[in-house]
Amino acid sequence: MPISFTPINKEGCWYGSTWIVDDEDALAEMIARVALGQSRGVERILKATDALPAGYPTGGFAGAKALLTVEEGVDPYHRDGWVFQVISWIAAHRQDADALIRAPQMIKADKGLDGLIVEFDDDDVARVVICEEKATEHARQKIKGAVWPEFAEFETGARDNELVATVAALLERSGDPELDKTVADILWSDKRSFRVAVTVGGAYATAKGRKRLFKGYEDVVSGGVDRRRAETLPLDDIRLWIASIAEKSAAIVSEAEGLADV
Prior knowledge:
The protein is an alpha/beta fold. It has one domain. The protein has a 7-stranded mixed sheet, with helices on both faces. Strand 4 and strand 5 form a beta hairpin. The longest helix is centred in the C-terminal third of the chain and has 23 residues. The chain is globular, with a radius of gyration of 18 Å.
C-alpha cells in the first residue's frame, strides 16, 4: 500500500497520525484512477488487496488531466488542494477499511465540506467525522484562520443541512433500514467528531512543533479527545512534491488515453 502511519498525540487534547508515503508510483496510480472517476474501484482495492485492476475507462481523459495540471500563469493551490484531498481520502481508507468515506469532489475549487467519514461499531454508527484537509506552506496560519472557524461553525449546528445530506447519501450505500433515525441520532448526540489533515514542513514535523500547530483544538471542539483527530503529511517542499506526484498521475492518464485510442 502507498501510505503507512505513525501515531501522534497530545495527551488529553488530540490524537492522530503522521503519514509516510512508501510508494509514490502506487499513490500516483490511485490518484489517476480517482481523477478518471474510478474512486469506487480504488476504494475496493484499499479495502481488500494491493493490486489495482488493469482496466481503464474509455473516456474522461481531458477532465482528469484538467484536475491534475495547472494552466500557465495560474496558481497551483486548487490543483494541490484537490490532490491532497485524494491522498487524505486514501489515508482514511487505510486507517479504517470498514468506514463509509465520501469520495473526493471532482471540482478543484469546491468550497463545500472537504471530507466526511462514517465510522461503525459493530452494526451501529460510532461517529461521523467532519474533515478539513489543507495543502499549505503555512500550516498554523491555515489551521487557525480557516480550519478552526469551520469546525466551530459545525459545532453550532449552522451547517447541519449540509451534514444531513452528505451523511444520508453515504448511509444509503450501507442499506440502513432506519436511515432517517440514524441521521437524527448522529446530529443530536455526541457522535460527531472532527479530523484535520495538513501538510507540514520541518518546523511542525516534530512532537514539539505539532503541539504548536494544533494549539487551541480543544477550545474549538469540546468534549473527549476522541472528538479531535489530527493528521500530518511531512514534506520538505510541499508545492514541488505535489507537482511531482500530480505529473506522474497525469502521465498515467495520458498513457491510458493512448491505449484507449488503439
